[in-house]
Specification:
single chain, about 120 residues, mainly beta, six-stranded mixed beta sheet, 1 helix
Length: about 120
């Protein structure tokens, strides 16, 4: 099974920034995505997506503030989050959208992001 490990979360004040990292055990993960699960919600929501060509897509509530990128030569992906808002408080996960759509995703522990004053 493909494993994903997220890191980089923490507490930050509104308007602050964080950079999340994700590492996968599979060198054949061509398309990556970040998801988040808000407090009290069961669903993980896809918020950013990057393919093997570097093409990115964002959900409207993070576009312009978050940037997804991938490392070169390693199995690492990043999410730079700027101008954070309390509504961004969530557990953030990374995964392969293909595996998620097939119901074969193996979810990591996620990384908690808390935005508050």
């Amino acid at each position: 099974q493909v494993q994903f490990v997220e890191s980089g979360g923490g507490w930050v004040q509104p308007g602050g920034s964080l950079r999340l990292s994700c590492t996968t055990s599979s060198p054949n993960t061509y398309v990556w995505a970040w998801y988040r699960q808000a407090p009290g919600k069961q669903q993980r929501v896809l918020i950013a997506h990057i393919d093997e060509h570097g093409t990115t897509l964002y959900t409207h509530f993070v576009e312009g503030r978050f940037t997804i990128s991938r490392g070169y030569g390693d199995n690492t992906m990043y999410l730079q989050m700027n101008n954070l808002d309390p509504a961004d408080t969530a557990v953030y996960y990374c995964n392969s959208p293909e595996l998620v759509s097939l119901g074969r995703a193996n979810w990591g522990q996620g990384t908690q992001v808390t935005v508050s004053s």
